[in-house]
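Below is our example:
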Amino acid sequence: MMEYLTTWGVIKAAGLSSYLLLFVSVCLGTFAHSKWIVPRKRALILTTHQWTGWFGLMFGILHGTVLTIDSYKPFHVAEILVPFLTNDMRVATGLGILTLYMLLAVQISSDLLKRIGKKVWRTVHYLPFPAYLLSLLHGILAGSDSSSIAARMMYAITGGIFIIVIVLRMRLRPKTLQT
């Protein structure tokens, strides 16, 4: 029983950490290059954006990996790697796997920026927006604590802030990009 509680605790903590780190990374990244960010603060914002993105990805990988060794309801490796393969919460689990692949693509593209070019990198860097929404849905649909008031409030607040960030960014972007 203690092994189950420990494993389940890691699964929940890793999933929640991944979600919150993705939220912070997306919000910071959205405004990192805005003209109203003071240049001396930009480096701190960009560094925090990058680190929260990497740690969000790592916690997401930990979340899925520990699900394969859970003694209560273990997933097969294929069910963690192939979206919508599992019979257990198929859609919710599939959304989480798609999120992970999107985040992985963003991180890999950042590492390969010089090889793939800024245009491709920028295009791939739009993936965190749908990835965040998929992770939000994944948490709401599959999270074991999603029915708690605290979890509902967290999802409502972070989801609301995300919408505000997107709306503000769209309103503040340069006119040359608004075609």
In short: The radius of gyration is 17 Å. The chain has eight helices and no strands. The CA atoms of residues 149 and 170 lie 31 Å apart. The longest helix spans residues 2-31.
